[in-house]
């Protein structure tokens, strides 16, 4: 198949799984249809939301009155940790992925995601990751260290139960699933758009998911790297983050927040996208300043990587760092403010239809702005010092994540439910749910601003009876139950409407984007035929041929080998893996500059020998290039030869590394013997693991070739795996330079 | 010496710096007829003023052995800001007059794809060579080749193609940052005036190379705007990593600044009145490279997005591709 066909023609789609599926249950388990997977994501997230909600209500019950003894301190710690982790990783992120999964292919006029089976894998990773996390409750206690697991509290001496290990493992599984889903989204959006739909015309929801996917693949490796280091600390007695043996607990904070701050925007950007779809449709106006809304998304994404240290003002980083990060953090308010202004201006002069969806969007605007403003307050260092680790922080991030993101998801639910189910949600019940949610949410969290300013610390299982504290906490708890009631009502309403809602029709809201151009719910292949696409609102053009939107579509469709879906997928994966290695290399450098104790790089490493077996790895880049060239000229035997050579060279490198490890271990250098050894084994070990995976992939490709796959012209695997192999070699250039050439003289 | 005296006295106007400025001015004066425009002049004047502010001012006096952070500021202005301004000034030259037409025809000659429309320079930023027929990348070099135009330089076109390859220009820009902060080189460049001239000139040249795939006058050779966003973002990561290292390193990156030779007699002013100790100094230097440098790249990203959204659509030809919907399977 040539790369052009994959993006223009019908998508090759592995239908066997679906065709074989007979029972209704099995058809859901075996599905690779993006709509069904989207629904699975959303419903699983709803179940976890109930779990996380119950955890939160238990926490609130304990805090309802001063000196309460409803929960034991340890159980309280487990519950707030699990509440945070569940809501972030098992509710908000997967629900956003679920919406994207369902809607992105429909909105760009595609048949399915680029990699349907990878899509199913992402979902199952999410489900089992979530189950793994909650299994800790029955396996000796859930993690009790807060959602950011600060070291050294999360290290074995201070958390000896298995809870943190479950936390680490499930986050690794969940993170892998998120990265896979994001790679899938990037490849889908870049390669499967309908003819005439340029990147500048994408519906804002799609655009923001596109940008957000880059955020995910770049930020999550930071989390993966740091939790792997924590896992090594706990499992193999390494000591990355154990200050008692020379490790650095501060480094955990840097690494965690290098992920944690982009994570805030990972949870916000798709919500911005939902709001950008809902508001124009119900204001009956095109979005005001599309390029500004779209470009400010990129601005937020880029800036979000440079401001993590504002979570650490209280650590004592020194005045210059505080100053620079204070300014950088305030900068991020500008693109966010641009968005708020654009949404408000879209409302201005529009003929508003105050449907439930619109009401949730309007509440989002107000509540997110409040959360954003308290966020700017935290960028001021002195204010941050006063309010850090108080309920002011709790109020702030709940205004952003619940009042913002969650309300946006509710708006999206009301907006897209008719498309997904073919039936409307009741507007009358919707108004009740909306007002209960607004009352419950603001009642719960607005008072926490005051509690925080009065100095009530977060994460304490109880508090003394100080003036107003009891009353405010009681208000908060009662409101939390009202909020819980509204969520239950919503779930009941969804169940009711699935059977008894009024029939929606294709386009109940008079929407303008492509998902409304097909039936509700869409058929398995999504579209019978697509309308012509020239502008940002193809359905508007169709309905108003006399005054269409300005034409934006490029007249030619660009085909380029860079825009082949396997190539795009692998490049995104490599970008993500590259960041993972950047973190490992950074840790190596951090721990090896001017630290002279125990085993050191200079005294333990044999530069010459490693250099020799590195040559084998580097030369394998040449052989794989020759193999690709041979295949292009259709000389299969020569291809087998060069490809086999590559595998051999990779194996020789692995053998060399094993010998090196064996020698070091004989000398008594193990992962727990010095900081150098800890970082050395982690960095080179993970590279070795990648080489192993590469060799396995090479063998699989060889088997495919033998099975005759390439005679039928299916050679994407060769190009894709070749790219991965080159990446593994390039990483070794950096690792070798850092560890063997520069390391000894650091 | 008080702060005021120091700030007022250190404006030396070295002949080398004036020479560099004069060269730039002469280069533009020759082309003045083609590029006569207000914006171009503003960019040029801004570049020259910044050049003199960076090299012939109290900043330079501080960078001359006293403060690493002053050196870093100078470095950023020379590598990232002045070259961008110069290319922006030069860009105007390419657009007016016959330049646009010439480039447009060169473009359609080079890419005789079936859909090649008579494009103007306006869409040149998004042009791809048509390689759709090649399923496989035939070499690592090709694998890495970005969708940019082929060389059409006056000299050896292959040299020009390699020199203007985005990977090379990226390495030039980020590499210059890393290279000049290898402790030995950093020390040597600070203590030897001759090497400093080399450093200054190389920073300007590498800076021009770095920005050329985005702002270069040869529009067909430019990167597509969205690829440019990735180009700048990765460069930002490259310099952030160095900035982070310099900020947190327990060792001195440029040991010369630990014990300045106090030629101007301002050491006590710097150390006691301003309170900048060597370790604080290095921290500020690292942070300058980390945060404000990335802000410059960030501004570039915003500029690219603005240019991308302002680009007119290519004329729509319904018959240009199989018009059937992709979903009739």
Structure overview:
- The complex is a heterodimer of chains A (746) and B (329).
- Chain A has helices at 3-8, 16-20, 24-29, 34-63, 73-107, 116-135, 163-191, 204-236, 249-283, 290-303, 319-331, 333-347, 356-379, 381-387, 391-421, 427-453, 469-500, 538-543, 565-592, 601-604, 607-632, 636-666, 675-706, 716-742.
- Chain A is globular and about 75 Å long.
- Mean pLDDT of chain A is 91; it is low at 1-21.
- Helix content of chain A is 69%, strand content 0%.
- Chain A has 24 helices and no strands.
- Chain B is globular and about 65 Å long.
- The model of chain B is unreliable at 93-154 and 317-329 (pLDDT under 50).
- Chain B is mainly alpha-helical.
- Chain B has helices at 3-9, 15-30, 32-35, 38-55, 58-63, 68-95, 99-110, 140-144, 157-163, 166-179, 183-191, 193-215, 225-248, 267-273, 278-310.
- Chain B is 65% helix and 0% strand.
- The chains are: A mainly alpha (746), B mainly alpha (329).
- Chains A and B meet through helix 1, helix 10, helix 11, helix 19 and helix 21 of A and helix 13 and helix 15 of B.
Give the end-to-end Cα distance of chain B, rounded to a whole number of Å. 82 Å
- What's the total count of β strands of chain A? 0
**Shape estimate of chain A:** globular
Oligomer: heterodimer
Terminus-to-terminus distance of chain A: 51 Å
Largest sheet of chain B: none
The tally of beta strands of chain B, per DSSP, is 0
Mean pLDDT of chain B: 75
Output the number of helix runs of chain B: 15
Number of DSSP helical runs of chain A = 24
Measured by DSSP, the beta-strand proportion of chain A falls in under 5%
Low-confidence stretches of chain A: 1-21
Q: Largest inter-chain interface? A: A-B, 74 and 62 residues
Q: What is the N-to-C succession of helices and strands of chain B?
A: HHHHHHHHHHHHHHH
Q: Which structural category do the helix and sheet elements of chain B fall into?
A: mainly alpha
The radius of gyration over CA of chain A amounts to: 27 Å
Measured as a percent range, the helix fraction of chain A is 55-70%
Residue stretches of chain B low in confidence (pLDDT < 50, at least 5 long) are 93-154, 317-329
Average pLDDT rating of chain A:
91
Q: Radius of gyration of chain B over alpha carbons?
A: 23 Å
β-strand percent of chain B reads: under 5%
